[in-house]
Design brief:
Distance between the termini: 63 Å
Low-confidence stretches: 1-21
Strand content: 5-15%
Helix content: 25-40%
Largest sheet: 3 strands, antiparallel
Structural class: alpha+beta
CATH topology of the domain at 17-30 and 45-95: Arc Repressor Mutant, subunit A
CATH class of the domain at 17-30 and 45-95: Mainly Alpha
Length: 102
Amino acid sequence: MKSATATSAHGTSQDREHLVPLCRGLGLYGCMSRNSPPVTTEQTLQLLDVGELAAQLSVSTRFIRRLVTERRIPYCKVGKFVRFDAAEVAAWVADKRISALR
């Protein structure tokens, strides 16, 4: 019997206990932040890959990968693949907006 703090390649089970399991079969954890409302079956996730997000933000894929490595952008992993929830990225971009002084 495994303990509640069993470790795996993806961290401890305590690290993921606040995350919502979105697709149990795919092992999709981490797209939901602590403050995000839970996803219902009626809602669909629009997941973007690195290339799609780079094109959408008009930046290089290298820059997106650097943001992921530095954990500066919200992302999730589907197996070994990095994906981005379009709604979370839009909120992240809105949060980074700098207002004009005048």
